[in-house]
Amino acid sequence: MSTQRVFVARLAGCTVFDPAGDRVGRVRDVVVIYRKDDPPRVIGLVVEIPGRRNVFLSIGRVTSIATGQVITTGLINVRRFKQRGGEVRVMVELLGRKVYFRDGSGHAVIEDVAIEQDRLGMWSVGQLFLRKPKTSASPFAKGPTTFAEWSDVREQQNPGEAQSAEQLVATYSELKPADLANTLLDLPDERLLEVAEELPDDRLADALEEMPEDEQVHILEQLGDERAADILDAMEPDDAADVLGQLPETRLEKLLELMEPEEADDVRELLKYGPDTAGGLMTSEPIVLPADATVAEALALIRRHELHPALAAAVFITLPPYETPTGRLLGTVHFQRMLRYPPHERLGAIIDDTVDPVPVTASAAEVARLLASYNLVSMPVVDPAHRLVGAVSVDDVLDYLLPEDWRSQDGEDTVEPVPTTTASIPRRR
């Protein structure tokens, strides 16, 4: 008979604390192993610790699981989690799985899984929260829900039938792009591609922008050409150009042809420049305004939530036309400077002309030096005719200067365990 029950979907995201009350990380998943005649046994949790690294926390090190928090003994092995044979992740692999009722009454999809602790302190899978097929033809209708014990259902997946990833995608809806990218890369390859298929274009685009280029290429190669083109449309032009530059010429051209013409033109322009130049690092979509635009108009533009913070730090004043490549660049107006003037002030009167733009041929090292020298987060990039063609930001330069595998580095030399006892770290068996 169980003494405690926790549903995994509610447990995901809960904070993990050590006995002193210090935050260790957040729960990302529950790991179970199947048993022949009994429900799967819980062997541990996947916990995300600082540095966005997922580690394994043995269930034996968990002293309490309560609403909104998990308490541990305080001893965490910070080695990156790697799923082993026979281990099953509840969030990643069980949610969304189709099961059949043993009494022959039909099938349902697992929407949540309860784990239960017995009187001996052992945790195992208990009740399942299931959704049956809908009975109404309405597109807004959902099937009825029910609870069932693990012993009441059986798993069966027909050949060629993909496991639903909708429930898993729903649990990722609040993750920031960098966290979503890290979570996706921790999934088994087959599951990663299933989730990628279910994610909205803009969410997958945001996540891809935070991944190493080889992972971007791998995912795009598995998607159909039309879906891949849609994802590239949703990415920032410079990020799309970076990943397209890694593809074979034939597929590159095919995807460019399938992209929206305006987006494809921006990417083609960026592909002309070397990857280690200002032209290759820049984005072709900075905020461009005429000299007679007001401070109020500029502030309204930089408030857009989808705008990258580095690009929102300044607007660029040019002669017409006002889309890159623009007319001649007149200068830059920084966000902080705008705050010092009334809303009706014309931008042309408050231009900062002390910082020269960088040419498209400038090296990444030169751009980095200028950004550091003038304490800037972005700089205008111009062509030989002094027309604005884009802006390069500090994050673009950092992406280039850091090692290629910086996103996936564990930082094991700098992250220490959090020992509060002298007990040894248990081994996974």
Total individual domains: 4
What does the average pLDDT come to?
A: 85
CATH arch. level architecture of the largest domain: Roll
Number of helices: 16
Helix content bin:
25-40%
Any idea of the CATH topology of the largest domain? CBS-domain
How many E strands?
A: 19
- Helical/strand content category: alpha+beta
Summarize the biggest pleated sheet.
7 strands, mixed
Return residue spans where pLDDT drops below 50 for at least 5 consecutive residues.
410-427
- Fraction in beta strands: 15-25%
CATH superfamily of the largest domain: CBS-domain
Q: Tell me the name of the CATH class of the largest domain.
A: Alpha Beta
Distance between the termini: 26 Å
Keywords: CBS domain
Region (Disordered): 409-429
Biased composition (Polar residues): 419-429
Protein name: CBS domain-containing protein
